[in-house]
Amino acid sequence: MSKPSQADQPTHPHHAIIDLPFTDGKASIEQQIELHVHDLFDVKENKSLSLEEVLEGLRYVMHFRIKGGSQPHLDIGLMRRLCEALLLNSGHTDGHLLRKHTTPSADMAFMLFGDFLEEVIEFRTVVGEKDVYDLRTQLKIHYRCQSTCTEEQKRAAVGIVQMLTEFFPRHIPDWRDLIKDSAQSDMDTLLRSPLASEMAKQKNTSKMPRAGGLVVNDERTVILPPPQALYFDRPVERLLQMFPHTRPNYGLPSALVPALREQYGINKLPDPPRPSAIKMVWNQLTDFMIVLLLIAAIVEAAQQEFNSMAVLLIVVVLNTAIGFTQEWKASKTLSALMDLSVPKAQVIRDGQQQVVESDSLVPGDLVILEEGDAVPADLRLVEVSQLEVIESILTGESLPVLKKVDAIKAKSRRIPLGDCLGNVFMSTTVARGRGKGIVVRTGEQTEIGKISSAIHASSKRKNKTPIQRRLNKLGKYLVAVAIVLCILVVVIGIAWKQDVRQMVNVGLSLAVSVIPEGLVAVTTVTMALGVRRMAARQCVVRTLPAVESLGSVTVICSDKTGTLTEGKMGASELWTADDALYRFTESTSLDPTHGEIILEPTELRRRMIHMRRTAVDNEARDSTVDYAALRTRPVDRSNPNAYDAHLRYALMVAALCNNSSVHFNAEGNAWSTVGDPTEVALTVAAQKAGLGRDYWTQGMRKVFERAFDSERKLMSTVFRSDVDGQLYMLCKGAPEELLQKCSSFLPVPKEKGSDHPLDIVSEIDDSFAAKVTDESSRMASQGLRVLGLALKRVPDVDDEKLPSLMENQFIFLGLIGLIDPPKQGVKESVATCQQAGIRVMMITGDHVETAVAIASQLGIFERGVHGMSRAILGRELDLLSEEAIIELDPFPNVFARVSPDNKLTIVRALQQRGELVAMTGDGVNDAPAIKSADVGVAMGQAGTEITKQAADLILLNDNFSTIVAAVEEGRHVFDNILKFIVYLLSCNGSEIFLMLICAIANIHMPFTVMMILWANIIADIPPAMALGVEPREKKLMHRPPRNPNTGVVTLTVWIVIFSQSLLMAALSLTSYVLALYRFNYEVHDAQSLAFACLTTIQLLHSFLSRSIDQSVFKTGFVKNKWMLVAVTISFFFLILGIYAPGISHWLELTFVGWQSWIMILCCVVTHVTVVEIQKFTIRRLKLTF
User: Fold this and answer.
1) DSSP 3-state assignment of 309?
2) 11-54, pLDDT tens digit by residue?
3) Checking DSSP bridges between strand 581-584 and strand 16-18, what pairing results, if any?
4) Which residues contact 48 (CB under 8 A, 6 or more apart)?
């Protein structure tokens, strides 16, 4: 961004001021002002604009087009709108209530008001119509005459006050009418100052501060650099006048580069935020459940229960370490994927072409672009020669864009990037041709820089994922329960005349038992294991909760190019004039040995009743049919000389009317390409048939080319044959244009003869033209880009006469259809998503016909099916309000020709509709929407660095099918989280019920705080972790997605938890009461029995929790081997805590005899029986959970 301009000081007479005003038409100036006025009113709604940027452009128009009497008269209606816009923005303030000051943008608007008041008579007339009170309240001059104001602000305030009182003596007789009463003393002091006296004497010079410039010490000059903008509406001549030091053949003087770099900044994208270990740890520690555990630890420490505190802190450290480790590893993996190297750039400086680092470029530099170059900054083109640029990372359109230098007239300074034909953008790639352009935007001001900055800014605000929201909600419920229990126990104890202090401690102990200490740790471990499984499937997860979030998504919004499709063009089919159709398999594979060419014979196509026919087929039909000849079959590619003449000559045009090349790179052991993607596809098709350029150029050589242009829509080349001494003129282009240049076509040969195939042709009639139209329409309806192929033979002529060869009298050969095809497996993945209740949408910058065709092939779009048959354009979306978009019914499945803002709007609209949205993509244009989505998914190979920074998940293999596996893994993770939540809450609930019943019945508490914590650790964490690795269920992807608004635990599950908790508590209470009152155990012995009984039941309950409704005898005891290990470990620690000296004393446990274990066994059998009856009831009633 440009630095704030400084007022020109009169104390530098040794500097020569280069203002360079030049004569400009009134209409042109008014048109430029109109654009800026429109932007001033639109700046609040248009997030792609900044107020400073608009005012900077308006100031440039003033100082270069109007200042100094260059244009004293402008349209009064326009001046009225401009006056309102400037007044609207002149009073913006910042600061606190005691000391407010105007913003830099408000000062710019204020000074522009003074400039137009001074220079334009019609503006002066409009101001004269204003009420003085309105001028006072909107200009807010009192903020600019204080002692703390800058000299520039004071000069502007004095200038405007002097001009208003001078121009309107009757309307504004006293300057005090313009100033707030409380600030009039400040203005009076300022008007008596030497500055005001000096300005009052100035008659022939401007009273307003001059726009700041750059001092160039070597040349002792000050230059006024233009603001950074695309300038698509400026002709080349006007653009060169704006950059007076840049000349078409000389470039920019090197001496100006340092000053310009200081003004505009370095041409470098903002660095991605580096992972902060401290921030990661802080995020882990501020999780709601962790905060609860820390509070519980503090409470235990306050009661001097340091053992209990230590146990709680161990759980906190365990969870924090696991979460931090996983997030740190993911960030390091992402860093390894990044490639932020800055390419070189070819520029002309001081009349010499040189290669410089692209970060040294400044606005005004003259950059040379050649085939294969990456564009180093945003440029306004001044020269082009068949320049085509691939802009898919910004627009999503896979085809290259043909560039021009013509100015584009528009009513806004913001038009779709795809329509900026006179500009090229940073990080796009030159597909063919060459050109020159002046750098007009660098660094963060470039299109890609603005998106990058927005992504980095939004990365500071992270929305909580569904599992985080649900666990937080569950935690709040548990806190509420804990508070209620504390109060309840204290009240009950007081009612029983118990010691208040003792009952408070008991209540706090109960509150600790409410909090499932293992919940956060086990949730973290389960998601971490899910991350590891997804990494094995080529998916990097940047944050743990994103795993579960993906399992909850209801809508997947996917970019087309590079995500659903391969991101490169391939020849899909070739139709020849004899009505044969050749289909290419693996057309995008550059290896000519991959894939086949499948022939669909002419007779078969003639008999296909479903084919659309405009022409009437009057050919005779034989009564006998050779069905063997009707079968589709692969073409034998071993002998290209034996091909049918139609196929040979069609592929001859594809190979030779072409400037691309495809070759094998031995060093990289891979195929590489050079040239336009469309021409590369044609070259690959010819090479797969063995008819590549090398095959033909053995006896032919190229002597002339007439390049493609957008008006002719044709390209032709001329080759001289060494065999027959004739010239072959080959042509390809738009079918409708090419057919008009053809007089004949290559017909079906009646019989084999010795004549040259091109000597036997038929005249084109209406029937054949209709047939070509049918085939072209059929291909276009499939989303193919259709090109016609033709040639002609002419007698040899001298080289100087070659340009006179006319593009006419061609022999029409056929049509070839090109497409960016869907990736393998994507169609099946889309079907799986739909089966799982997930809606897949396509959001692309490509044409709607292509988008609908690809979407139809993948099953995303189906005509006649409600909710799957609507496609909408980005410009149609712009006409709708946010509320209208949210209410769309049916909501479209395909969005075409969309901008990055459109994608963001779509994602937010879906979220407002209650959907949980995953957004996939690879281009920079996808990054804002990916960042805003609930789950952002980027491509690891084709994805840009900015997109990877914005994403939650990165697909290393760029395969959309991996998303399905990730969704399944996400659902699997949530299923396991739900299972161990049920287990944990059941176990902890049993402790709550047991202690609460004892408190109500005035029975001695069965557990100490240490017993509660030890039971929670040995009986909760290991079995729950084993539930976290429970194998996925078979019909996981046949379920609908979970409602994002529902909690983790549904009503049915709450009933299950309540009943099972009460059952475990009742059995443990029975054993405790019997021990105390029937068998006369000591209190400590009875407590140890109750502890052993409840913990044993809980360990066995872990097997029962593997399914809410399925019998344990169906799920089995050995299918989850980790469960066996976990229960064995937990039971070992149970025995260790009871019988090991020292440890048992620390845990306040005593010896448990064999009689007690018989009682425990009876309780276990009872528990299993009752739970199995409950599961049978759930299955019988078909309750959902």
Assistant:
1) helix
2) 333 333 333 344 456 777 887 788 778 877 766 665 556 788 78
3) unpaired
4) 414, 450, 901
